[in-house]
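Figure 2 data, in text form.
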Amino acid sequence: MNEVDKNVNFDEPIIQDKMPKFLRVLGILTLVNTGLAILGGIFSIAAGKPSEKEILASKVEIAKSIVEMKKANLEYFVDLLQKIEGISDAMYANFLMFNVLAVVIAGIGVTSAVMMFKRMKLGFHCYIIYSFLSILSVYAFVAPSNVPTILIVANTILSGLFVFMYSRNLKWLTK
């Protein structure tokens, strides 16, 4: 072996200096999603709670949809719409806190993505926390029996998929 080969330790992992493209794409998707959630929450807070007239109009539209679903014997969708109406009622009743919580949770998501861009493994763990909070936040205002199972299942699958995809890049995160 020559002098250069003696100084190379093949047991140490090779760490890329350049961010993997897949991690960059995931980070950008996270930043877009969480950024829009933050903007939506801020604009909702700034616009204020909908008026009683707007809330009533929304309830009338949901009631019409429920009647149509009942006529078509689509009981699953009737139940789903009734639960969505319950979530809407809880959101209107706790309008400010609902939106503040959404902004805070989205802020955790932004922070986690930025930390991962800075090669911090803690960002991955923060992303897991963000994922759990985004799934479970609805329970802060709505009884579990009034939350559609499909909503929780879909959010859990999507969040789990993103956590899995981020986990494929843990080798690049060093700090």
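Caption note: The CA atoms of residues 9 and 124 lie 28 Å apart.
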